[in-house]
Amino acid sequence: MRTDSITKYVALRRALLNEKAKLEAGLARINQALSVDSPRSVPAVSKHKPARAPRLKNRMSLRAAVIQVTKAKPLTKPEILGAVQKLGYRFASAQPMRSLNTILYTNRQFKNSGGKFSPA
């Protein structure tokens, strides 16, 4: 009975080794077709999002720039936008007027007199 168990083990082991050799040969063909250098290396697939552009760095905040350009005299929104950009402020948004509106209409730091804004 012991020899039967050993014989079965040897036959099963041999069958597994043959199957392993067939699978490795198949993987070698696949790797060659994919032109992978090492048969064990698989190109990594990145799960990360593509890198974003670095955030723009301005010398001063938008709020400080708006205060600076409206100190001398009240300006309309398009005038403020142009003056802030002339100062060198760069907007990351494709619609900079939206960012400007947020600054002008929140926290009551600017007063609106007939469509012209000045510091409060």
Question: Layout of SSEs?
Answer:
Elements: H1 2-33, H2 62-70, H3 77-87, H4 96-105, E1 110-113, E2 116-119
Antiparallel strand pairs: 1-2
Helix pairs in contact: 2-3, 3-4
CATH architecture label of the largest domain: Orthogonal Bundle
Class from helix and strand fractions: mainly alpha
**Order of strands in the sheet with the most strands?**
1-2
- According to CATH, the fold-level topology of the largest domain is Arc Repressor Mutant, subunit A
The CATH class assignment of the largest domain is: Mainly Alpha
Count the strands?
2
- Average per-residue pLDDT, rounded, comes to 87
Radius of gyration: 35 Å
* Gap between N and C termini: 100 Å
Biggest sheet statistics: 2 strands, antiparallel
Can you write the helix and strand succession as a string? HHHHEE
What percent of residues are in strands? 5-15%
What's the short story on this structure?
The protein has helices at residues 2-33, 62-70, 77-87, 96-105; strands at residues 110-113, 116-119.
